[in-house]
Design brief:
The chain has 13 helices and no strands. By secondary structure, the chain is mostly helical.
Length: about 250
């Protein structure tokens, strides 16, 4: 199943390239056109790049979601049902291919970040931990997307579902610190799963950015960066497999 998805990349390279370029465009836009980072200590680029790496893990789910719905609607799944494979094999194969693309997106984003002045000040194992947290968030978001894709049922409905990712991404501390936001909005941002990962990743990369932590969520961002994705996986992984099994009957 994973080889099948990788073969699609060779036949449809534009979709892959767009997925890699879009986060880079956001990084350059916020870094040079909109940047400023009110309330951010130190270099804004050191604050912004880890946040953009987190956004890159949340965006781009629509390609996987569309692929799942297309397989369901074009009868491809019916052929797979006649083969001796587990119900979740199709979904797992798709998720592995998506994770490979996500790793490539991280490499591209990190390369662009280094080109515009971002520097890693943490240890080697800190960098490994940061990459691990980013991929864990992506894996969790991926299974949320797979489940919602099967609920949507049709490729044309995927765009509507994907829009839900935007509020989650922009109501985070990817671009600005919660302390610089309205008092009622700051706590919402701090408890956002993406904010937890962004804060933890900044710490592991050794960057200064951000303001002094004043809440439990900010002080325990590393713990939340692990717990939030695990909670999402615990809920949506079995839901997705169960939904796929029900569609296969």
């Amino acid at each position: 199943m994973t080889r099948r998805e990788l073969a699609h990349w060779a036949r449809q390279p534009v979709q892959l390239i767009v997925g890699l370029v879009f986060p880079v465009m956001l990084l350059l836009m916020f870094g040079y056109l909109i940047g400023g980072g009110r309330g951010v200590r130190g270099d804004y680029i050191d604050f912004l790049v880890p946040g953009m790496l987190v956004l890159a893990m949340a965006f781009g789910l629509e390609s996987t979601m569309v692929a799942v719905t297309q397989d369901l609607n074009k009868g491809v799944i019916d052929r797979f049902r006649s083969m001796p494979m587990a119900d979740g094999a199709v979904l797992v194969g798709r998720s592995v291919a998506d994770m490979l693309q996500s790793a490539a997106a991280l490499a591209v984003m990190a390369g662009v970040g280094l080109a515009v002045g971002w520097r890693v000040h943490g240890s080697f194992w800190g960098v490994v931990g940061a990459v691990g947290l980013l991929l864990l968030l992506r894996f969790a978001m991926l299974w949320v997307g797979i489940h919602l894709a099967m609920v949507a049922g049709r490729p044309e409905m995927v765009q509507t579902v994907q829009i839900l990712v935007w509020p989650l991404g922009f109501l985070s501390n990817a671009f600005a610190v919660p302390e610089a936001m309205p008092s009622w909005l700051g706590p919402v941002v701090e408890w956002n799963p993406m904010s937890a990962t962004a804060t933890a990743v900044r710490d592991l990369f050794g960057g200064e950015g951000g303001a002094t932590a004043t809440s439990w969520a900010a002080e325990h961002a590393g713990l939340l960066a692990v717990l939030w994705p695990l909670l999402l996986l615990a809920v949506f992984f079995p839901l997705a497999v169960r939904k796929f099994g029900a569609l296969s009957k």
